[in-house]
From TrEMBL:
<dbReference type="Pfam" id="PF04977">
    <property type="entry name" value="DivIC"/>
</dbReference>
<dbReference type="InterPro" id="IPR007060">
    <property type="entry name" value="FtsL/DivIC"/>
</dbReference>
<keyword id="KW-0472">Membrane</keyword>
<feature type="coiled-coil region">
    <location>
        <begin position="38"/>
        <end position="65"/>
    </location>
</feature>
<keyword id="KW-1133">Transmembrane helix</keyword>
<protein>
    <submittedName>
        <fullName>Septum formation initiator</fullName>
    </submittedName>
</protein>
<feature type="transmembrane region" description="Helical">
    <location>
        <begin position="12"/>
        <end position="30"/>
    </location>
</feature>
<keyword id="KW-0812">Transmembrane</keyword>
<keyword id="KW-0175">Coiled coil</keyword>
Length: 104
């Protein structure tokens, strides 16, 4: 029994191995540039890149909408669909189907 314990502890009697283990533990967990902090920062970077991609898609969609609204036909279409505006000589009928109604 005693020989198996000394067999596993034998490398730790060397000062270089002890210093190397302490240095590795320090760099992985306690240092300002530790692996844990790098992992957390990389996760934050990934999340921010996904957010950036989402907002770039939204900007492209908004640019497309603005381009459509810059013409008088697009502006009139938007006003008719969203705000139910009409010309003086027109009547508007809004038809709603049961499956399109919001029910609580």
């Amino acid at each position: 029994m005693k020989s198996s314990k000394t067999k596993y502890l034998k490398p730790f009697k060397n000062w270089f191995v002890i210093i190397l283990v302490i240095f590795a533990v320090w760099m992985l967990f306690f240092d300002a540039n530790s692996w844990l902090i790098h992992h957390e920062l990389n996760t934050d970077i990934d999340n921010l890149e996904k957010e950036k991609e989402y907002y770039q898609k939204e900007i492209e969609k908004d640019k497309k909408t603005l381009k459509e609204l810059s013409s008088s036909e697009g502006l009139e279409k938007f006003a008719r669909e969203e705000y139910y505006m009409k010309r003086d000589n027109e009547e508007i009928y809004i038809i709603e189907y049961e499956d399109s109604l919001k029910t609580d």
